[in-house]
Amino acid sequence: MGLLDRLDNPYEAGGIILGTIEDVLNWGRSRSDWYLHFGLACCAIEFMAMNASHFDFMRFGIIPRATPRQADFIMITGTVTLKMAERIKVLWEQMAEPKYCISVGSCANCGGPYWQYGYHVLKGVDRIIPVHVYVPGCPPRPEAMEEGMMKLQKLIDQQAIFRKRQRLAEEEALKEK
Amino acid sequence: MEITEIYNKLKDKFGDSVKDLIISPPSDAFIAIASDKLFDICLELRDNPEFDFDYLMCISAVDFSENLEVVYHIYSMNKKHKVILKVSVPKENPVVPSIERIWRSADWHEREAYDLLGVVFEGHHNLIRILLPYDWEGHPLRKDYKEPETYHGMKVPY
Lengths: 177, 158
Ligand code: SF4
Description:
By secondary structure, chain A is an alpha/beta fold. Chain A has helices at residues 21-30, 42-51, 82-94, 105-110, 142-157, 164-176, and strands spanning 34-39, 63-65, 73-77, 100-104, 133-135.
């Protein structure tokens, strides 16, 4: 799907890429995601390694932002306590559309080690905001976070921009058949 | 100074308020104390140059079904000796005098013990929850605590 993949195609090589405007727009969107990092616990420590030179998260074209209003996606890394959950919801609502969420680590996915006796832990951040990519692990290795980021890029690449409603309706109709 | 020496000196001064010295290795030896004289004993430990305890390391609380126990780890930077005090109070009325005016580090420790186990520290200037939200109900580290079904509309159990 990626625009640059087409350069490998012998029929389209030679400096010319044929594609739709949507492809170009999505290519730009998915390769320059700005993010809001919501670090909560040990997973955020692993995320520091992700950001440092060894794994270099910024090579995905992403830039950390200090405010939700400039962010395209939010990274929830760590244990979401009930006290913090309300703040996450506020931040999520402050982000401008289109917005995405990556949930990193077992805690943010489903409560992690606190699933049974964590009286103060929200068992999965998807109970309060929609999650687009789940990264499993306790904590996930930086490679897993990279994989999560690539999944998100793929998701953005495939999104409809023009004639959105019509196409969604067509897809629905296809599904029903 | 050894803990037996500290114990004997305190016993001479405060009598029955200083209850027992319990030595059971490998655990650290500790002195059991009646809650009403706790403030005076701590003040003595800090201000008597023989003891010179200038550092409160930790306050913890433990739930023993009928009783709540509060544990004080106190250290002297100059004399390099250490003492452990334990105060036991009934669960229906868990009131312990605050020693926040003696060692300021007790401030947040006492708030934590209040927050999680519901020990009430009398004389604390600002005894409010420190970790949980202010509108939380109950004290979660008590053995008979039941976690809520929902909190602000969020489901709590898995
Ligand atoms: S998933 Fe594991 S490493 Fe990540 S925040 Fe939870 S306990 Fe920490």
